Amino acid sequence: MNAELAQLLDRVRGLSEDVDFACVREWKGQGSGRKAVGYMPIYVPRELIHASGMLPVGVLGAGDRLEIIRGDAYFQSYICHIPRSTIEMALTGRLDVLDGMLFPSICDVIRNLSGMWRLLFPDRYVRYVDVPQNFSPDVGGAYWRRELEQLWSDFSGLAGRPRDARALARSLEIYNENRREIRRLYEARSLEPWLYPASELYLVTRAGSVLPPEEHTTLLRRYRELVAEESERREEDLSRIVLVGTFCEQPPLGLLLTLERAGCSIVDDDLLLGLRWLTEDVPEEGDPLDRLAAAYLECSCQTASVYQPEGRRGGWLVESVKRNQAEGVIFCAPSFCDPALLEQPMLVEALAAEGIPHTQFKYSENTGQFAVIREQAGTFSDSIRLWSEA
Amino acid sequence: MNIFVGVDLGSTTTKAVLLDERGTIAGRGITNSRSNYEVASRVAREEALVTARFNLVRNALVADSELAGIADGFVPLLERTFRREQYRDQLRRLRGELHRSGDRGRRSQSPTRLREVLDLIVDEMDERADRHFGALAVRKSDFFRDLAGGDYMALAERFAEPGGVEFETLSGLFDRAILPVENSVSETPMEELVGRALDAAVGASGPRGGAAAGLELAVARVRSTPLEELSSVGTGYGRQRLPFPKEQIRSEILCHGLGAHVMFPATKTVLDIGGQDTKAIQVDENGIVTSFQMNDRCAAGCGRYLGYIADEMNLGVHELGPLAQQATTCVKINSTCTVFAGAELRERLSLGQRREDILAGLHRAIVLRAMSLLARSGGVREEFTFTGGVARNPAAVAALEQLVAENYGERTINISPDSIYTGALGAALFALSASRKAA
Amino acid sequence: MLLQKEMIGKHYRDLASAGDEGSKVVYTFVPGNLTELMGSFGVLPVLPEINALQSGMRKLSGDYISEAEKQGHSEDVCTYVKCDIGMLKKGNVGPTGLKLPEPDLLLLSYTGCFTFMKWFELLRQEYDCPVAMLHVPYQADGRIHDHHRDYIVEQLESEVIPKLEQVTGRRFDEERLRQRLALSAEAENDLVWVLESAKNVPSPIDAYFGGVYYIGPIFTAFRGTQAGVEYYQTLRAEIEERLAERRGPTTPEGELEEERYRLVMEGPPNWTSFREFWRMFSEEGAVVVASSYTKVGGLYDRGFRHDPERPLATLADYCMGCYTNLSLPARVDLIADYIREYRADGFMINSVKSCNSFSVGQLLMLRQLEERTGVPGGFIESDLVDPRYFSSANIKNRIESYLQMLEQKRGTAA
After folding, report:
1. Average pLDDT by consecutive 10-residue portion of chain B (439 residues)?
2. Within 10 A of B285 (CB to CB), how many other CB atoms are there?
3. Neighbours of B (≥3 Cβ pairs closer than 8 A)?
4. For C133-170, how does the pLDDT look when each residue is reduced to its tens digit (9 = 90+)?
């Protein structure tokens, strides 16, 4: 492997494993009065944080890198893992680097976690980001614009600088560019998946949750260039699959590697959805806050925690399977994940109607054992290949 | 003498503690819980009465300047003699049950032949009794089932073929016969056995002259001292089926808290990891429970989990801790779920990880579960008392010491060799204080 | 009690004959239910949570849940949903043995529970009928913002009312809505009086196990009706009498003779072993004097009343004010107040596996409440309608240990 590529991959792996947020500390140390605001999956309007001169930081749990000592004391056994490791990070001071924390409205666990934050850290800025489930511009749109306005004021207060529409317009562009670059990578991967192993693509994308967007965009570009120069990567005959259910609690890297080793080539997924939430550019003309609000209504991607006013659920998944010429779908949901697991039967129905094969299993962010998954994914991959040959 | 009884009916063992009026421990008894809780608590209580009687003997001897010198030799002799007598009594009942079961079965062998072989075995077992209860004997277990079972199986193997009886037939008979023996109480009163043992011990101990007369007198006095049970309290896992009226039943949490307080008066936090559940308890300066937490519905992280791992690894539970202490690194275990533990274990072994290192990880995983219960109940305060079967496991203790120090700072960790009696002791104290209140 | 049985029986008979009578049927949820608005359109509500809990009490839920799990629903998720889906798959026979009509409209009042949204999406796959989505913002910072109220009112105007009009063919009649709201407020006054009667020592009611019967009518189809008003008048008169005669609350074993412990309860009850669960308390003389569960359909005791003067805005405030739509700090405040106001000896949390909206954070609530009130808390775990999650011995053990702890503490304090 090209040395620079190896180095880049080392770096992004290091970023994803760093439960101490060293790079955020470093960024803050580079200028006086710099602040950072954390957010949990899935979507928050990072543009507003950025426009206020602060660094948006994705808090995606601690994977298997922290032993949960205090976190378990707060959660019953039937609750997913990400809040445990997140509380563990907070109680051990690892999140002190964050000057504020946002909890998007993804499920009741994350919602209540926002209240736990208020109780545990009464002096810190905490906000529950209640995205609209009504998509009419005059109703949900008006509400969302008010919410964004409030957020923007909060951030400007936190950062100690006035709201600046030009700065926001600039941030919209920077994030447009960043999402464009991620989309390019996803498209490239869909065409030549052997060039972009899922485990790599995941880490490279994930770096965007801690790096400033400008720097991340550069990194994404460089990654694509380096991969293009890489001659060792050969086309392989693997099963093309779409991975679903991984939008909140992160699957361990070992799980992605296991799927690939079991003969599955991931051609689309719902990993790190918040970083690529808006499927199109936010338009460049008009009031930036209006545009940001409208973009949420008009070009959000679809996932379990977003209400879909019309039609049957799962259309987007069938569409992704077709667009990416996938041969099957792997449902891979965190244990006790309400949105993913309640959604699953509807998605299965949509796939069944189209005759698309699928399999399913559960994980938790600290799963260390993949023997069963390897076997199951291997069998699935073999069976869909046999099926497509028949 | 007036006594107050506490019985702790656990999932694996049943314990009884007797207190005198001053609250000093007069006697203790333990037995396996078997399937019959009523018999278990009766046996434990009788065992405790027996030890109380022995303690009285010891006290009588120590109080007498002429006899004080022989107390250390006489009491253990007395105990051994009693155990042997008791064992023989149980063997008599076992023989009867074996005959009964043998006669009932429809087998190819003639019933007479079978009976002959059974008698051969039991006769030999009877002879071996002396070996089990000799001065230097080391017994793996004090429970009749274990002791007799070991001998029986070995002898059955020896006598089966020459006797023309299948080994499976013999082992099946034992499994059937042991249940009624365990689940009923001997018709020979315990007091009579104690009396027999006393007589035998006095004869065998051999003091001469005035000392002999003094010993006989002291023993006679102890024999005639009535042990009057004034009140009793029951607790423990199966306590809803304890043969006590409702008002004489106390929660095991309360009993554990109070028992730990009496054993270590500065105790503030108690952790009990037993076979079925884990409890984290906070007590005040009087041993009164102020808050508690128990593990949720699954037994993950309890003693049972270690038992499961031991089975999986083909080891005895007591071997796990020492093995884990030989670890060079501690493997991270994610699943304390008993259902998944086996699979995780096998996969790790197949990956070539060392057994010792995996075991170290497993012990840490259990202690981590306990740590979260402790945190839920209010943390680890000074002093900290650790009880239950797992407190005898050195690797678990080491992991606990480390995690407590890391998360709460240095704490005194009390572990009593008698910690198995903590709940029964607390129950007996409740019995005593109830009786004081009534007075 | 008898009156209530009659009312509920009639409601299910009305539902069963809805098709023949030409009545329209709307499925909706208890928290944030728009009963007055539905009533003003003359539609009949079906409340799937109530069906699920009734199935639980009638020991049918276990089969329904297995049915749903067989169909691919995860064992990890809410058992209300699975019980409902299972019941549907097995013929949709309601708790009184009569078949439930299919919905003409799914009114998805997304209040205080994320799972509601998925639940109706699942039902939408089964029924070919419109869905009206009402997104109720969460009271994350402990208060109702004007623009949140506006958002709900706008959704009522642009989404809910038009769909009700479309389904019923009737025009929205604000006057009829006002009349119903006025009736609601009347019944609400009496309900609050009944709930607060537990401030008396000893209490004439149990505000949790008994409380679920008291809230039944007002949380369901009978708010804003004359029948509802009369029910609460009767109930109040009965409790007044009970109080005057210094009689204790009703329990499964008859009247409670001695009130030994006064408790505040957080979390929903278990339904599959409801009476057994209740008995674990009543046998020990433990009376629940206040509970959060009886506030899932509105916090009337904190002052809210449906207000005929502001018909849509009052519905918005109602939705936002339901207990599960409150932030964790607000829930801690409420329970701490209850402990003080109702002179409780302790509080207990029944943490149910199904309901993350309730359960996540309860262990922190426990600690905060203990610190703040100095009163010890107890913690038990069960489920709503999954019989596999009710471990009787374990729960009884915890309750008894907890009550004995209270007793012992009292002994040393005296």
Report:
1. 92 91 93 82 88 89 84 84 88 92 73 88 90 79 85 91 88 90 78 80 70 79 85 77 76 94 96 87 94 75 79 84 88 67 77 86 88 91 93 93 94 94 95 85
2. 10
3. A, C
4. 999 999 999 999 999 999 999 999 999 999 999 999 99
Q: What is the dihedral of CA A309, A313, A314, A315, to 10 degrees?
A: -60
Pairing mode, strands A328-334 and A239-244: parallel
Residues of C in contact with B252 (CB under 8 A): 397, 401
Residue with tokens 């529409």: A165
**Rounded to whole angstroms, what are the CA distances from A383 to A262, A377, B186, B295, C72?**
12, 10, 66, 42, 21
The C-alpha of B430 sits at a distance from chain C's nearest C-alpha, in angstroms, of: 11
Helix axis angle for C61-70 and C79-89, nearest 10°, is: 80
Tokens (6 digits) for C353: 């596996």
**What does the block give as tokens for C116?**
């509601």
- In the block, tokens 């169909």 appear at C71
Structure token pair of residue C252: 């499964």
Closest to C211 in 3D by CA, of C27, C119, C338:
C338
Question: What architecture (CATH level 2) is domain B265-415?
Answer: 2-Layer Sandwich (3.30)
Nearest residue on chain A to C331, alpha-carbon basis: A115
Give the separation between CA B280 and CA B65, rounded to whole angstroms. 47
Does the residue C196 lie in any domain?
A: no
- At B243, give phi and psi (nearest 5°): -80, 60
Let me know: does A332 contact A243? Beta carbons within 8 Å.
Answer: yes
Chain A partners within 8 Å of C73 (Cβ): 341, 345
Can you give the pLDDT at residue C179? 97
| Bridge partners of residue A215, in order along the sequence | none
- Best C404, C409, C410 member to test B by mutation, with max B CBs in 10 Å, is C404
Chain center to CA of B280: 22
Phi and psi angles of residue B30, each rounded to the nearest 5 degrees, phi first: -145, 145
Digit-coded pLDDT (tens) for A299-358: 999 999 999 988 889 999 999 999 999 999 999 999 999 999 999 999 999 999 999 999
Nearest 10 degrees: Cα torsion A16, A18, A22, A27: 10
Helices of type H across A161-287: 165-191, 198-206, 213-229, 253-261
Subunits with 3+ C-beta pairs closer than 8 A to A? B, C
Q: How many domains does chain C have?
A: 1
Q: What is the CA radius of gyration of chain C?
A: 21
What burial class does residue A138 get, using C-beta atoms within 10 Å of its C-beta: 0-12 exposed, 13-18 middle, 19+ buried? exposed
Range of the domain at C53: 10-173
The ranges assigned to domains in chain B are: 1-251, 265-415
**How far is it, in rounded angstroms, from Cα A266 to Cα A263?**
10
CATH architecture of A19-167: 3-Layer(aba) Sandwich (3.40)
* Residues forming a β-bridge with A55: A36
Contact C50, C221 (CB under 8 A): no
Residue B242 contacts C where some CB pair is shorter than 8 Å? no
**Residue carrying the six token digits 């008859």:** C254
- CA nearest neighbour of A223 among A8, A1, A2: A8
Tell me how far the alpha carbon of residue A298 is from its chain's centroid: 19
Read off the pLDDT of residues A255-273 as tens digits, 9 standing for 90 and up: 999 999 999 999 999 999 9
For B164: left if phi > 0, alpha if psi spans -120 to 50, otherwise beta; the answer is: left
H/E run at residue B386: strand B384-387
Q: What is the pTM of this model?
A: 0.90
Confidence band for A13, pLDDT divided at 50, 70 and 90: very high
Q: What is the pLDDT of residue B210?
A: 67
Is residue B282 within 8 Å of residue B269, measured between CB atoms?
yes
